[in-house]
D-alanine aminotransferase (Exobacillus caeni), 280 residues
Amino acid sequence: MIIFQNKIMDRSEVSIDIEDRGYQFGDGVYEVIRIYDGKLFEMEGHMKRLERSAGEIELSLPFPASEIIYSIKELIKHNNIKDGHVYMQITRGASSRNHPFPDNATPVLTAYTKEYEENPSATTEGIKALLADDIRWLRCDIKSLNLLGNVLGKQKAKDNGYDETIFHRGDTVTEGSSTNVFIVNNGQLVTHPATNLILNGITRKVVIDLAQNMSIPVREEEFTIDELLSADEVFITSTTIEVAPVTQINNTVLNDGKTGEVTRKLQEAFKNRISKVINK
Ligand code: PMP
C-alpha cells in the first residue's frame, strides 16, 4: 500500500497525470525518513525541512504536517515495516504544460515505504569517494526533485568503481551526491556551513549535536580539496548510510584505509541515539 493525497491506497489504484509538474519540471520537494524498529527517526526535523523546502519554492503543503505524519505511521503499521524508510514527495500538481506556476493546480502528495533487507549502514565500512565538479544549481539547500546533478555525480562514481562522489566548487568541498561531508583534524570536526550550496542534512545536524555533547569541537566552515585529502579522518553522513568512514578519495588512501577513532566514536554515539528512539 502507498499514500496518495494522504489516503492509504493500493499502489495499482493510483494514477499520476502525465502533466504533473513533478514529472515534467521536477517541480516539487521530497523527504526520506528512516524507520528503525517501526519508528520514525528524527521525524520533526524532516517535516520542518519539508515545510521549508516547499516554502522556498512557494508551495504550501496540501495537508498539515501532523496529518501527513499520522498517515505515514498508519502506512508503516499497515505495511509492517521494521527497518527501512519512507519516501514522500509533494509536487505542484497537474496543469497544461507551461513554465509559470498554474493558477489552480492541486499539489499532489505521494509516499511509500521501503523495507531494507540488509541495513545499508552495515555495508559502509570504508567508502571510496571520487571528486567531481559541483555542477548543480545554487539552491542545493532545497530538497527538490531536480536531482540530475546528483544523479550524474553518483553515476560517475559508479562507472569508475567508487561508492560516492564528493563535490567541489572550485577549491571548496561542498558535499557528497547524497551525503554531507565531514573532515577530522586534531580531534576537531569541520563541515561546510549550511548555506545555499549544500543540503542541511538531518544526520549532519544529529552528528554535530552528538559531537558537541562529547566535547568534540565542530567548525561549520569551508574547507579545501587539499584539506580533505590531508585530513586525519573523513566521514560522510545521511539518513540511509548514517555515519560512514571515507577511506579513499580518488587515488589517495586515508588513515591507512581504516575507520578513524573519532569517526568510530561518533558511529557508536549515533547507534546509541537510535537505541533511545527504539526503546522510547
Ligand atoms: N546532501 C544531499 C545532496 C542529499 O541528497 C542528502 C540525502 N538526502 C544529504 C546531504 C544527507 O541528508 P540527510 O542526512 O537529511 O539524509
In short: The chain is about 30% helix and 30% strand. The pocket of 4'-deoxy-4'-aminopyridoxal-5'-phosphate is lined by residues 32, 150, 175, 178-180, 199, 201-204, 237-239 (CB under 6 Å).
